[in-house]
Amino acid sequence: MAKLRAHARRRPSWDGVSAIAAYLDRLDRELKSRRAPRARLLAEAADHLRAAAAEIAAGGVDPAAAEEQAVARFGAAALVAHRYAQAVATTAARIALLWATTAWIAYAVAAGFFVLTAPSWLKDFPQGAPSMLGLQVAAVALAAGGVRALQFRKQQLIGDVRLRFVADGVLIATIAVLFAAVSELVLALTRPAPAPWGDAAVIIAVYVVAFAATVVAGMAAVAARARVAVVAELPRPQGGLKPAVATLVDDVAAAAPQLRPLAQWLTSRPAAACTATAALAFVVMTAVAVAGDGLLGAAAVGVVEAAAVVFAYLAFGRALGLRAPG
Predict the structure, then answer these.
(1) Does 83 reside within a domain?
(2) Is there a single domain that holds both residue 98 and residue 222?
(3) pTM
(4) Domain for residue 187, yes or no?
(5) Which mean pLDDT values do the consecutive 10-residue runs of the chain (326 residues) have?
(6) Residue 10 structural domain
(7) CB proximity list for 204: less than 8 A, separation 6 or greater
(8) How many separate domains does the chain show?
(9) H-only helix segments in the chain
């Protein structure tokens, strides 16, 4: 930063401090207040301003006036800093979304490998139930966040409101997968009888890989949510665009227009949608489990699944934009 200021002051204005140096000082303060990385943007801004001032001065304009014109064209420091902080947060959210999707796939593969290869002594209930519930919650969270990010995949910035939904979806997804992994570990280690873990060495290795990917995804999700929170909590600079109202219907319609009527119905009748989803989950899980657990056992599994649907909707519906804020 000192080198940038020194270089900018080589052409002093009427008050002894160049317009470019004064602007870089303001930009540095604005970036610091938004907790945005400063070195790269300050260097790029200094290069751009010097080049613009030189081009203007080449037309016969006084060097000091040329710097002032270059600064005016570049934009208010507060607005530039806000947009840069939003761009950094957008990049962080996209990276976190990619990592969360990778972690979900890795854990889904691990869960599927468990179902296909686990020895009989390791398949007793509730072993596997946390994975099933966690993967479902994570899938919904990733879908809700991903469909919002998909609309802006070719743009540098995601709007403030949608960006928060994306970051929340990623964070909820990674928490759900981590919850599943930790719960499965607790269930495995608290078994009533000693377990021959050597027979499940491959399964353990697969889960370790999936858990490692989930930990990385969790760190990326926390970092992205922190950056998004900083952008959302600070007052918007004068001249900045107001946050757009982000509806899930619009985002779904942008990604898949044919699904707009379904999204409209689901979001306009949240209680009915939640009830219908829970009922469907009960029927499906009961039908799947009835062969191995009998009717009563299968019904119990169905009730757990339906209750999980209702709980997840009440707990995460607002954060994911699935229901209106209270």
Answers:
(1) no
(2) yes
(3) 0.77
(4) yes
(5) 44 56 88 79 88 88 88 87 86 94 95 85 75 90 86 76 89 94 86 75 90 95 90 59 54 72 75 84 82 75 84 83 67
(6) 2-75
(7) 197
(8) 2
(9) 2-8, 19-33, 39-57, 63-74, 77-117, 129-150, 160-189, 201-233, 248-255, 260-268, 270-316
